[in-house]
Amino acid sequence: MDTLIDQQEVELMKDIFGFMGSLARESERAAVILAAARIDVDLEALLKHVLLPHPSGVDSLFDTDRALGTFSSEIALAHRLGLISPDFEHALQMLRKVRNDFAHDLQDQALGTTRQKSRLYEIIRWAHQSDIYQTNLKILLESTKTPEHAQFVACTICMAVLLKCGIYRFTRVNFGRPLGLSRSARPPHPFSRPPTDEEEESSGLPKSSQELACDSES
Asked: Which domain holds residue 26?
């Protein structure tokens, strides 16, 4: 088991450092768009990991025209499920806003402008307490053209690491037995929890009329 965990950590670090290097070599516009795309994919993967899969195996819930087809909706759901903290949710929303400006504005965009720098500051305020941020920032300051570029990439690396770690930390949501109509002849109390199969078998309640009819025909 420890060997498996060690191997997962090695693969994670290789992936993260490759991601960091590619963002450092890009322009600020390309780095922002690519970083946001990567975080979007990682967040979607985390949500799919904890949500009940579609019975057909084809999950259209995350298609662009469906409920979770936007980065914003994925962020909101992850927060409401308790997968990410309020501060992390805010940092992701700031990343989304920066991405939108860089992707949709034809004019030159830079992380050092007043508008983007204030958003970048909000993201840094979330990430700066992490050793991951501090360690990678020192490396990135030597390989990027602007300090803002280095700070942005260091922040997104923190996001990517956390979302990847969430795959190993969280399990599929389990609220107990799904809601459904009871087969019991006695109507359930509206505020009672559904009985388990073991409780139904040991309750001594008569079978439903449909089940009795089936028994009589057999």
From this structure: 2-169
